[in-house]
Amino acid sequence: MMITPCELPEQAAILSDVTPEMAFADRGYNGVDIDGVQIWNSGQRRGVTRGLKAMIKRRSAIEPTIGHMKSDGKLDRNWLKGALRDAMHAILCGAGHHLRMIWRKLRLFYTPILDNRW
Q1: Mean pLDDT, 10 residues at a time, the chain of 118 residues
Q2: Is residue 67 included in any domain, yes or no?
Q3: Same-domain pairing of 46 and 80
């Protein structure tokens, strides 16, 4: 089932019990107008303050992480059935991604220490 851009704020309100006031989107959302939601596109120049620019850049930083989780972290195929299990699958994939990052940092920290000991 495909969700249209106009349904996304409604879906976010259902999932988080908070109605969004701003949405940061890519250029595919050019021309989309949703009542009560300000849509900020990447590459937009008019009316963008320093804080909004940082939020737009933050959204751009999340995109590669989601791509890595889809290709390396088994987020691409969900074997579980139902909406609750879909959410559990996404949370577990995110937790696995963070654990892999922590293990990588620990390996980089402890490898020089252990190499000097031998």
Answers
A1: 65 78 72 73 76 78 77 74 82 86 87 70
A2: no
A3: no
